[in-house]
Amino acid sequence: MLASVFSDLRYGWRTLRRSPGFAAVSVLALALGIGANSAIFTVVNSVLLRPLRFPDSDRLILVIERNLKAGFPRFSLSPGNYLDYRDHNHSFTGLTAFSQQGLNLSGGSAPERLHGAQVTGDFFDVLGVKPQLGRSFAGNELKPGSDHVAILSQALWKRRFGGDGNVLGQTLKLNQEVYTIVGVTPPGFTFPETTQVWTPLTMKEEQWRHRGGHFLSGVARLKPGATVETAEADLNSIAARAEKEFPESNTGWDTTEIRLQEALVGDVRPAMLTLTAAVAFVLLIACVNLANLLLSRAVARRREIGIRASLGAGRARLVRQLLTESLLLAGLGAIAGLAIAWVGMRFLLRLGPDILPRADEIGLDGTVVAFTAAVAAITGILFGLVPARHMARTDLASFLRSGGRGASIGFRGNRMRSVLVISEMALALVLLTGAALLMRSFYQLRSADPGFDARGVLTFSVDLPPLKYKTDAQQIEFYSRALEKLRALPGVTAAGATDVFPLGGDDTVLTFEQVGKPPAPVGKSPSASFRRVTPGYFKSLRIALKRGRDFDDRDNASTPPVAVISESMARQFYANENPLGQFIRISGSKPAGIVGIIADVRDQQLASKGRPAVYQSALQAADEPMAYAVRTSGDPASLIASARAAIREIDPELPLDAVGTMDSLVLHSLSTERLAMFLMALFAALALGLAMVGIYGVISYSVTQATQEIGIRMALGARSVDVLRMVFGYMGVLVGVGLAIGLPAAWGAGQLLSSQLFEVKPSDPTTYLGAAAVLLATGLLACALPAARAMLVDPLTALREE
User: Fold this and answer.
1) φ, ψ for residue 155 (rounded to 5)?
2) CA quadruple 702, 705, 710, 711: dihedral, nearest 10
3) CB 95 within 8 A of CB 235
4) I need a surface site. Which of 150, 179, 247, 483 has the fewest CB within 10 A?
5) How many CB atoms sit inside 10 A of residue 95's CB?
6) Which residue, 380, 78, 129, is CA-closest to 248?
7) What is the pLDDT of residues 171-186, one digit of tens each?
8) What is the pTM of this model?
């Protein structure tokens, strides 16, 4: 049996070598379909399916507080609530907390900005990670004053210390304070993402008891047998007790838990699943093309197969030979597909290295190779059966006697090939429609008014170390001097600073009290987004002032607090009155008088709407770090060196962080949507190209087989236009039936995409008509050459052949 299989393989290989054009087209079509699937599977496997690099990572969960009535479905933990959950739960072997921070590293040739995380003492134990060098934090290092120790990431250790094994005990100057290195993490460990330095999370006892401020992230490890659902019920019983005991801070608050892996990849999951479905359609179209090619080739080889049958070859033997040849093609396609997958994977990583979570883990491995082999095998068998079964049902002996002529254009004699092309049309329409919907949605997002003008704005942040800038007055002096120098740079038309840029990803929501009005019930205080900004900030981003005035230098620490509010806040809380001149008290601070109203800003994402927001002057209450926006009449990038020099004139030890432009910040906020749109359009174009090849193949084959019929018609007086009508009529039937089948499927796909669309209806008729028109144009283009060849048929030559 094995020898017979090898014989079939050798014969199949010789057959393919005699038809290099057929082999090349078949392998290319398969390679594109399999390669695209393998590339996307590589990403999906690495990002969504592969366990995290922690022991028993399926037992790690992210603990999230929420207040659904107040509109906070996902929020950080407060210190007091974290201690309750940690000390009174029955579901975890450990619950750790951390807070991300920025750190200024000085002492080298140039200051450097690092991504840091302050963590509780059990952080590495809960994650199940042991430092490669050194140790975790000791108990006495978790108290204020004794916490100047640090653990370095593998990458920072190698870059800063050259991988020196004697790094333990050496020091780093972080935020002007000296830290002793006690450990180095294993390769690949960077949790939370991008972290380079870990330091102990320490607070005074009264700070740990605070429940109003939510700024901690919590990760827990489930006990054996515990589930996410039982853990959520456990913590919510603790939250219910805290709500009764601390109604002012805890009313309406409870928890929700999700697996850590899901939390890390949740934002890209819908896009990845959509792309997975899209490449599966591409593979189906490629396989349909392969089936059509194999069917045409089998028909062309019927004389050869008929001879083999007359010499004693049984039908099972002939079917096995055809299946062997299709599997051989699938194997060659898989090998080429792996090469395409590797290129596609590298392209994806270059296209969006900061979009995909766990990007450093993405790569071809044994799982991907096995997936590719399985896809190739299924492809070869499933679509090799089509021509094999067709041949098995054909009377080869009668075909051998007739010579195989006499076919006509149309479904008669081409039923199987026609059905295959119709399925290609339907599948291509689904992809075209999905791509068009995502493209329109992206255009709507990109065209949406964010409430500010991002063009021509340089952005960067500066973090003032608290040891050097201890008081508000020192920080405010730095802001003022920095803005003065920045505004003096050539080409600068405005400059300002804020604690958080719009679309920057961070958010601060605080409760407030409307002074002079009845207090809200306990636990139901109104809340708003809170920002601190300097004078000139609104002008630098061209955020429109609707009423009142902007902040100016008079709004400083020696004058009464003032605030500017958003239009949404004015509408929601001051619908029937003038908010200017009224006072609000934010989280128990001094009352601030409202002096202005500005346009709404889409500060979280472009798809969001404006919301209540309060802005206070950073010259009255300092905040650090601050992000600077510098508007210029020229190219913002040309200002980077000058801006860096301006800051160093004030303090040479301060590095600039997150240097970029406001335009790039906006684009980055759309990175996931842009990646999904681009890849969907690419797959749709690939599907369209394969569909064009399919139409061309079946029409061309049909014209070749119907040469005698065309010659007879023309000899009897048919004109060229009649031949064109016959050819294009057949194409019209194929495309028309494909559209009729594909439109309902495309509508269903549009409904599945509805959650990813912005201001575009999933049943938008313009999109469907456009996709249908593109598919029809593709059919016309594919049909042009066979139609022209049909017009040039010589009736006399065709009749002589008859």
Assistant:
1) -65, -45
2) 160
3) no
4) 247
5) 24
6) 78
7) 999 988 899 999 999 9
8) 0.78
